[in-house]
Amino acid sequence: MDHREQLEKARGLLAREDYREAAKIYQDILKKEPKHTIALQGMGLIALGVENIEAGEDYLQRSLTQNPNQFAVWLKLGYACNRLRKPEKATQAFRNAVKLEPGKSLGYLKLGSALLVTGERDEAIKALKKAFLIDHESPQALRLVSSTVAIPPGGPLVREAIKRLEAPGVSAFVKANLNYGIAYAYEKAGEDKKFIACLKEANRLQKEDAPEWRPVFERNFRVLQEIFTEQSFEVTVDESFRQYSPIFIVGMPRSGTTLTEQIITSHPEVFGADEVDYMTMFIVNGVAVMTKEPYLDGINKVTKEQLEQLSHSYQQRMQKIAPGYQYITDKYLSNFLSIGLIKKIMPWSKVIALWRHPMDNALSIYRNYFLALLPFCYDLEDMGRYYHIYREMMNLWDRVLPGFVCHVKYEDLVNNFDSEARRIIDFCGLPWDDACLEPDKNKRSVMTLSQDQVRQPIYKSSIGKWKRFEQDLAPFRKVIEGYGYKVE
Question: How far is Cα 468 from Cα 2, in angstroms, rounded to an integer?
Fold first, then answer.
């Protein structure tokens, strides 16, 4: 049966993100032809677009079963599997894409990135180098290679990157990624001045496209300080609704949160879900839907029955990621804003907050590439303002929820590893297991920037590194000292 007109219309609707109307067309086709490859593919893309990742995976897999020769669909399936914490299946999807189109860099970029997640470093580097050299479409590959292994500043990869930077019409995105890649080569070679110069240029380029964050974020911060008091927790969900034991890990980016999660998930009873944005995506938004008011206006008006519904929703979603586990970590850093909500819907939760010397923390953030979700990372003054908000929010939770949060200093963790690891595991309510003393041997997939570092034995070389770049970090220091924080 010929569905060309319908498919063309559906494609246009999909491009405009009119998912409802596009779905009607695809579903109509599937009623007549349940195995229609393009309609299944379209439904998969719609499911991903509305964040129904499980359905997206199913539709895309069914489309590929009918026709496995779909490069873009293999890439989308890999993306879905990554979101669902299925790293091995994601890696295989990207391998299939590379086999179909060995001349396209994007397949190798996705494959290399997936292999870094699963800890297959050597194969990852080979794939990423190939991605960078095949064409000009994957500048991220150089950044990933150079951040993972040392490449010589005078070598072929850096020479090629400099050549591309000098070409006309290069986008800010490409320039930023190339500058990060070159910066890391200089850093590992000990050429600090060239390292920081490339880093400043990369961050300048990133900031150009970063969304404005301060007005809304600072307003929400002020409102949260006003609406959460000790009386806010007179109504919470009962222990009888407990389905598992959540462990939330919060902190500034690059403050030791991944190492902490690696320690905890070395315990055989714990599953590491990495960074899961369910608390914001479903629970915070759920409050707004239930109360028909914005979250900050509605949070203290939610009934106990509604809190129970939210608790059940979050726990069910997390247990789909890790069926059979009684302890699951969630390392979504922005959850520090939602600790009051966490206490209301799952008062049995454990929350661990990481701290690091602010100057070392600032340097580590500034030297890394972050997505648009963290726009403050590209400007040292903005970073100082965000640091202040994090500290003040944690002070609030300590005031209104004394003892609910366990505070861990990164420097104490690496200098007194045995005692700090035992303190963390004890706080989580877990029996001690010696595997927690060897987080570098933890074979779980790690999807954050620290995926390579946490697979190394505990090291102290990053402590005090900021002193080499004290002048360059002066804007951050000026802001936090203006808030009254001392730098020692």
Answer: 67
pLDDT digits (tens, 9 = 90+) for 240-284: 999 999 999 999 999 999 999 999 999 999 999 988 888 888 888
Residue 388, CB half-sphere, CA atoms under 13 Å: how many? 22
Count of CA atoms in the C-beta half-sphere (13 A) of 45: 22
- Is a pLDDT exceeding 60 seen at residue 1? no
CB 428 within 8 A of CB 438: no
Report the number of distinct structural domains present in the chain.
1
If DSSP codes are grouped into helix, strand and coil, which group holds residue 286?
Answer: helix
The number of angstroms, rounded, from the C-alpha of 369 to the middle of its chain's C-alpha atoms is 12
Nearest to 449 by CA among 107, 180, 147: 147
CA atoms within 13 A on the CB side of 172: 9
In a domain, 245, yes or no: yes
164 vs 176: CA distance, rounded Å = 12
Contact 277, 250 (CB under 8 A): no
Which domain CATH number covers 389? 3.40.50.300
As beta bridge partners, residue 350 has 247
Inside any domain, residue 76: no
Q: Which domain holds residue 368?
A: 214-227+241-268+331-482
Would 11 be classed as within a structural domain?
no
Which contacts (CB < 8 Å, 24+ apart) does range 442-445 have?
A: 442/262, 442/265, 442/266, 443/119, 444/262, 444/265, 444/272, 445/85, 445/87, 445/117, 445/118, 445/119, 445/274
Kindly report the backbone phi and psi dihedral angles of residue 327, in degrees, each rounded to the nearest multiple of 5, phi listed first.
Answer: -130, 125
Q: Answer whether residue 321 is part of any domain.
A: no
The per-residue DSSP string of 378-422 comes to G-HHHHHHHHHHHHHHHHHHHHHSTTSEEEEEHHHHHHSHHHHHH
pLDDT in tens, 293-303: 999 999 989 99
Query: Residue written as tokens 């393009």?
Result: 38
Strand order in the sheet with 270-272: 270-272, 327-330, 245-251, 350-355, 405-409
The DSSP annotation for 420-479 comes to HHHHHHHHTTPPP-GGGG-GGG--S---SGGGTGGGS----TTTTGGGGGTTTTHHHHHH
Question: Angle at Cα 148 formed by Cα 159 and Cα 207, nearest 5°?
Answer: 75
pTM recorded for the entire structure: 0.88
